[in-house]
């Protein structure tokens, strides 16, 4: 059974970059130990064991994350978790640099050793561009003396033939991949000759190989000298040799050691698996990893474990040998025991400040309540644990007063002497002290730097930034909600904090709840987190409510899904949290009030936009739906402000925005508390009514984007007395009708009509328009009797108040005739249309669209009345006129040809003529209209019916199948046109002998019509009767 030891017992840290290197290292262990409990703040996974009495910790870089940065992160986490580590080993594979001076072969081992100016490892890609070329900067520490002494002793043993390398390598005999035999031939090509092809250089020219003397044996040869480390793979022979020459001759290229040497004292050991050129492949990697691991074991075996125990730990070794003063700490919060996750953000801070050392100041930016303070707190304590040479201080920038108070606490901590009477500015004293060399290294956290005036001052007044110390070896981390503040403070050195991922959120909720059993239902838990949008503060608030009220997650969800007042109540409820500032908002809704106030103070236009947005839907907000602000630059600035606070997020590659759902709710609370909700709602309704497009097909994409927002406003019962609301209801109804959502259209058109009926005069144009549109929707919904009654009333009113030739009077008579025909009153329809046509013939020119439209509809009525010859003659006239005044592809010209004339020809027995005309129309429309255009689809639909009438059933089925497929993608399930094409396709299937298919499709059509059409709707009744008949046939 594996033994278990305390973390402090492990003294050697062994880091690998690849799984194959870790496997080799594990094979070298004399004994494997039991795993220890995982530290939640450490992303590494460790293998534990011992070699020659040394207790060894093995860690591998995360899969796919090679390079100096990743190695540094793994090493730092290792030394923070295993505080007893005395030194490290970086063991793995590398690319050799063959030269006349050093005969390096594949499978050899290279060990880092100081040579001239270099300490054993040089980061060759670290530096800066200068007028004279690339200048390498910085230096890397040499390996610890105890390891260099061990290398010397090991090499002496090697020379005396007392090496045990062969014995160690024999452990790999049971793993074929790690044996020398599996590696294959050792081929070195000339530096200037690039790889020609083949995984193993099969097509590379043998003439370009370098001829070398064969070695006397296959024993591993060890070389010591400089190793070049960088963040990119060295893959060209000429570049390899150039860089090596610039550095005075290196033995090996690799990608990890440069991130370790200064912060994790170690020895680098590399097995040569290729020659750092374009001919590299993976055949030698396993064997090279094995030789490196065996060599590392040899090094450890010459070091007495007792000597290691006498040396300093890694933490002690990297601390300054002469500290000017002991570190000091002022962190006003204790550690947060509920903190979880955020590994990527913490790693990003570590990379920027400690690994790459590319900056001294970094800003954490994110939405209020996203967890910035908690991430900064976690980072501060991790620095305290892993870097004891750093003092750590914390100041809030909520106000200049809170900042000054914190400076006073820091002054007391540092024992900064104050002048008599404390008249000196403590902020300035702290700045001066921390800027001086005697202060040593420090990390300063400036939290809640949200207000531009507080941070940067206004006019002659100083801000927090004016009192911040500057020192070469010290660091500052800011937190802010405001992107502009972040960029102003640290430029591009910004770490953006997003909402938690699913696992982090579940873990945080679990740590926050008293009753862990509440999380047994994964579906309910996930639903809660989705409702809270994975926002940490909202999760903490929910947990506090559930804990306090001893309720369940389901009950909390019920409250979130109830009335807006219930939601406001629970989202505004404050709760105690020891990791937050006293006397500041802890409720998620109220914490944003501060930001809303700042926006109102500095950018009134942005505040007005946010108030408008809280009245419409919170997602998919088109830029065009927002109130217009002039000039455009001012509008862009206002949107930029909202995006800077992370309240509004712009979708990638779209002029569309989303608002955090809880922000949307909190904004409504804020607007309501300011007493301006009624005014804001009215402004929103008025604006949206003005910009809402007409129901023309050309506007379909736009009004589809606007509809959810308009419907939300129309659903707001607080606006029921506002007249403009019913104009918006009318527009919504019109567009829903065009989109085939007839039932919804009827509901909104009724809303508009009934209000106008109660509040407007009988002859009011607005009231009559609502009646007219509602009648059309009733007609589409199969409520033909209601449509007739409404239109008869409209016609009667307009007959009294308008002259005979008035366009509105004629339009209502025209529409009434259409409804008469649908109601089976064909004679009435014909009489009324003949009257309309006669009047329009007197007052309108021959080519006027309204005159032609009436003649068009009259022809349809003639056909329905059995007067086919009259219908054909009239339609031929309409087509002739439209042919003269409209271009070939004009919709009106095409409509008269396919909607009526072709079907009239068909009714008159002239089926071939109908087919020819419709084929022409379809051909023209295929050139000028997009695939899903309603007119194009209607023409194809009618042509398919003509094909069937002409006996071309197969053609009818093919064409209708295409129409059905396109309408299925473009139209909602209950759209009349979609159902019509499916119904006709079913008839075509039946005519083609595919009765089973016909029955299945008709079953579907009937099911949809039963759901959306009234029981006595003609279309529903016809489909049901046809289905019953076909079912009998199929039986």
Structure description:
52% of the residues lie in helices and 10% in strands. With 1035 residues, it is α/β, with parallel strands linked by helices. Strands 1, 2, 3, 4, 5, 6, 7, 10, 11, 12 and 13 form an eleven-stranded mixed beta sheet that branches. The chain has a six-stranded parallel beta sheet with strand order 14-16-17-18-15-19, with helices on both faces. Helix 38 (953-970) runs antiparallel to helix 39. It is elongated, with a radius of gyration of 40 Å. This is Kinesin light chain.
Cα distance, first to last residue? 74 Å
> How much helix is in the residues?
40-55%
Shape: elongated
Output the radius of gyration.
40 Å
Based on secondary structure, the structural category is: alpha/beta
Number of strands: 22
Strand content: 5-15%
Which whole number gives the mean pLDDT? 85
Characterize the biggest β-sheet: 11 strands, mixed
Q: So how many helices? A: 41
Give the low-pLDDT segments.
none
């Amino acid at each position: 059974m594996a033994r278990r030891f305390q973390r402090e017992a492990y003294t050697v840290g062994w880091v690998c970059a690849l799984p194959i290197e870790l496997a080799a290292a594990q094979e070298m262990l004399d004994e494997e130990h039991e795993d220890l409990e995982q530290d939640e703040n450490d992303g590494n996974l460790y293998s534990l064991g011992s070699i020659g009495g040394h207790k060894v910790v093995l860690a591998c870089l995360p899969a796919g994350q090679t390079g100096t940065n990743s190695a540094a992160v793994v090493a730092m986490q290792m030394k923070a978790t295993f505080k007893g580590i005395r030194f490290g080993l970086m063991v793995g594979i590398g690319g050799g640099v063959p030269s006349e001076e050093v005969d390096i072969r594949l499978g050899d081992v290279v060990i880092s050793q100081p040579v001239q100016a270099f300490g054993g490892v040089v980061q060759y890609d670290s530096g800066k561009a200068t007028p004279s070329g690339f200048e390498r900067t910085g230096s890397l520490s040499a390996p610890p003396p105890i390891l260099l002494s061990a290398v010397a002793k090991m090499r002496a043993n090697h020379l005396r033939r007392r090496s045990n390398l062969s014995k160690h390598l024999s452990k790999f005999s049971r793993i074929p991949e790690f044996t020398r035999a599996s590696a294959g031939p050792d081929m070195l090509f000339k530096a200037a000759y690039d790889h020609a092809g083949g995984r193993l250089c099969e097509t590379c020219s043998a003439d370009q190989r370098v001829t070398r003397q064969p070695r006397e044996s296959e024993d591993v040869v060890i070389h010591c000298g400089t190793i070049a480390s960088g963040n990119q793979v060295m893959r060209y022979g000429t570049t390899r040799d150039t860089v090596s020459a610039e550095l005075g001759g290196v033995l090996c290229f690799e990608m990890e050691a440069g991130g370790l040497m200064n912060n994790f004292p170690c020895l680098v050991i590399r097995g040569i698996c290729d020659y750092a050129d374009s001919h590299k492949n993976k055949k030698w990697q396993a064997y090279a990893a094995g030789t490196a691991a065996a060599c590392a074991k040899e090094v450890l075996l010459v070091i007495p474990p007792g000597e290691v125990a006498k040396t300093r730990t890694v933490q002690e070794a990297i601390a300054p040998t002469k500290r000017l003063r002991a570190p000091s700490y002022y962190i006003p919060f204790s550690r947060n025991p509920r903190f979880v996750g955020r590994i990527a953000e913490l790693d990003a801070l570590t990379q920027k400040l400690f690994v790459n050392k590319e900056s001294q100041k970094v800003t954490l930016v994110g939405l209020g309540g996203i967890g910035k303070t908690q991430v900064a707190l976690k980072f501060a304590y991790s620095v305290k644990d892993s870097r004891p040479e750093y003092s750590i201080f914390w100041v809030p920038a909520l106000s200049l007063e809170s900042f000054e108070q914190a400076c006073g606490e820091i002054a007391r901590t540092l024992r900064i002497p104050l002048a008599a009477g404390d008249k000196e500015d403590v902020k300035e004293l702290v700045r001066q002290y921390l800027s001086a060399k005697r202060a040593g290294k420090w990390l300063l956290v400036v939290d809640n730097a949200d207000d531009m005036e507080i941070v940067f001052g206004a006019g002659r007044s100083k801000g927090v930034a004016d009192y911040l110390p500057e020192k070469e070896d010290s660091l500052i981390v800011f937190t802010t909600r405001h992107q502009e503040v972040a960029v102003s403070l640290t430029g591009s050195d910004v770490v953006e904090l997003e909402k938690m991922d699913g696992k982090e959120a579940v873990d945080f909720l679990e740590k926050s709840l008293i009753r862990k059993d509440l999380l047994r239902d994964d579906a309910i838990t996930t639903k809660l987190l989705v409702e809270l949008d994975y926002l940490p503060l909202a999760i903490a608030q929910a947990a506090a409510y559930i804990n306090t009220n001893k309720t369940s997650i389901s009950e909390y969800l019920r409250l979130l899904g109830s009335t807006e007042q219930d939601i406001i109540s629970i989202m505004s409820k404050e709760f105690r949290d020891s990791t937050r500032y006293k006397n500041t908002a802890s409720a998620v809704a109220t914490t944003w009030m501060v930001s809303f106030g700042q926006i109102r103070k500095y950018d009134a236009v942005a505040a007005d936009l946010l108030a408008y947005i809280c009245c419409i839907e919170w997602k998919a907000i088109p830029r065009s739906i927002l109130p217009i602000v002039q000039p455009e630059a001012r509008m862009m600035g206002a949107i930029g402000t909202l995006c800077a606070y992370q309240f509004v997020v712009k979708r990638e590659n779209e002029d569309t925005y989303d608002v955090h759902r809880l922000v949307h709710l909190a904004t409504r609370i804020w607007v309501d508390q300011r007493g301006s909700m009624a005014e804001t709602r009215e402004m929103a309704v008025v604006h949206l009514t003005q910009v809402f497009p007409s129901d023309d097909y050309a506007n379909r994409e736009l009004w589809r984007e606007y509809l959810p927002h308009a419907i939300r406003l129309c659903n707001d019962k607080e606006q029921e007395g506002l007249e403009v609301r019913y104009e918006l209801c009318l527009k919504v109804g019109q567009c829903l009708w065009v989109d085939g959502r007839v039932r919804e259209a009827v509901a909104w058109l009724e809303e508009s009509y009934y209000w106008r009926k109660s509040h407007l005069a009988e002859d009011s144009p607005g009231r009559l328009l609502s009646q007219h549109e509602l009648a059309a929707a009733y007609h589409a919904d199969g409520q033909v009797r209601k449509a007739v009654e409404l239109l008869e009333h409209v016609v009667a009113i307009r007959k009294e108040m308008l002259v005979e030739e008035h366009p509105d009077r004629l339009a209502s008579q025209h529409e009434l005739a259409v409804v008469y025909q649908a109601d089976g009153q064909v004679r009435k329809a014909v009489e009324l249309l003949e009257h309309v046509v006669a009047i329009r013939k007197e007052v309108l020119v021959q080519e006027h669209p309204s005159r032609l439209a009436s003649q068009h509809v009259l022809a349809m009525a003639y056909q329905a009345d059995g007067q086919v010859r009259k219908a054909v003659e009239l339609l031929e006239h309409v087509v002739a006129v439209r042919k003269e005044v409209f271009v070939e592809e004009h919709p009106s010209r095409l409509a008269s040809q396919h909607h009526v004339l072709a079907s009239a020809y068909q009714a008159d027995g002239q089926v071939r003529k109908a087919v020819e005309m419709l084929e022409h129309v379809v051909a023209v429309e295929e050139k000028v209209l997009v695939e899903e255009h309603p007119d194009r689809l209607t023409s194809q639909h009618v042509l398919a019916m003509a094909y069937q009438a002409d006996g071309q059933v197969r053609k009818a089925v093919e064409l209708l199948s295409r129409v059905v497929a396109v309408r299925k993608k473009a139209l909602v399930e209950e759209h009349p046109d979609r159902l019509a094409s499916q119904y006709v396709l079913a008839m075509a299937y039946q005519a083609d002998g595919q009765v089973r298919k016909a029955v299945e499709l008709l079953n579907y059509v009937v099911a949809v019509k039963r759901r959306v059409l009234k029981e006595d709707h003609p279309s529903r009744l016809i489909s049901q009767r046809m289905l019953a008949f076909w079912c009998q046939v199929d039986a």
